[in-house]
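Form P-L/3: holo structure prediction, ligand NDP.
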Amino acid sequence: MTELERKQDQAPIPVGWEYETAPESRDIVTLRERYGHFVGGEWLEPKETYTTISPATEEPLAEVGQATEEEVQLSVQAARDAFENGWSALAGAERAKYLYRIARILQERAREFAVLESLNGGKPIRESRDVDVPLSAAHFFYYAGWADKLEYAFPNRKPKPLGVAGQIIPWNFPLLMLAWKVAPALAAGNTVVLKPAETTPLSALLFCDVLRQAELPAGVVNIITGDGRAGAALVKSDVDKIAFTGSTEVGKAIKRELAGTGKKLTLELGGKAANVIFDDAALDQAVEGIVNGIYFNQGHVCCAGSRLLVQESIYEATIDKLKRRLQTLRVGDPLDKNTDVGAINSQAQLEKIQELVASGKEEGAEIYQPPCRLPEKGYWFVPTVFTNVAQSYRIAQEEIFGPVLSVLTFRTPDEAVEKANNTPYGLSAGVWTEKGSRILAMAQRLKAGVIWANTYNRFDPTSPFGGYKESGFGREGGLHGLAPYLDFE
Ligand code: NDP
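OUTPUT (holo model):
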């Protein structure tokens, strides 16, 4: 044992540290008792409603609309009218002004959005405050910059907007997914009908307030709420494009529905990313990257580094460090600024995680969970590591979408590539090594849309994001993210 290893063994595990809680105040958010659909710049009284809750406490937050087919059609008609009666003819520089306004208002109201996002979705306030909300504003700023430069972005191709874009988003990054979809659509001159996920509608409904504040013309952005039935009705409606982020299963159903209709489609679906750690990697940083890769947002991340591939020679050291690090993660109240891992988004998602974790144990993997006191109410899952995982196990193949890591090992770069690519998905991957040449070689061979080197879960509006294989097609972010909202001559 080296001197360093001996010291590390003796380093105290701060498991006994008692922090005071540091709760963010909820007062900044004013919830209405009941929300309608936002159609043509007005609140449309919904025919049916349901209750949206806080997954951390199961406390009801508000009544929101469950859009009927008729209400979906009204929203698409409002978007069509807005497209034909002004928005599509507006100069790019004018469209840009609205996008800049939206971005600035999001920044001004950042704390309000962050608190609401954590309240309705269960994610730690640290993440909604430092990631979701600033990145959402950054997407509007970025695409505002392109709105009057489409001819330069796509020279000699005469870009034209498509018309009405139907957009369906999931519950893991409610405001950020809205920004990823709405900002490029508007910059390209389209109008929008957006459906947030059933469990997390509130930040999208607060965003309607921002649209009014920015004086965006009525009908340019319409927001309808409800479960999958509302999404299915939007897919069938008279839109020109569907942009969908969610499960591979629903993505496939949407593709079948749209086949032969001529409507454009982009799909951002699931993932089972490999986070590959070579033996020359800076191990402490890599362990931070592993933790960030899988426990960020409770692992409710399509590009989560859910499969850890560790080179055999550093396996034990990595797992030791990882287990010690896990003992320091704080799980609990999403509104506490000390919290690292918040609540699972819904009862249904918790059951899915539990079912897959049970399958991992049954198939023979070894489970590690740090000692952890979970709140009594709400939906929670302890950060979990599975070792001794075979490639064929369900926990190595299926998207768990929770704070659960499956660890596999490799000996050579070839074996790492083979194992990393051995899934139906191809959304993202991570590579940890000191060698630049190895990073480039791995990036060439990994079948993933996004590859991070010596970091993980980094997002930037200028950088395209999207997948291969069952992770979908089309890109969001960057110039690539504009093209799916344009027609070319
Ligand atoms: P879904 O794919 O069902 O949800 C994504 C969005 O699509 C939601 O707005 C949803 O509405 C809507 N939707 C559901 N059914 C239809 C339909 N038939 N037609 C059109 N829209 C529809 O994901 P789930 O929330 O059910 O999560 C299930 C699993 O999917 C997760 O465990 C995870 O593995 C994966 N997932 C992946 C995501 C990603 O980013 N890649 C994001 C979310 C989930 P509603 O909210 O009412 O269901």
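COMMENT: The mean pLDDT is 95.
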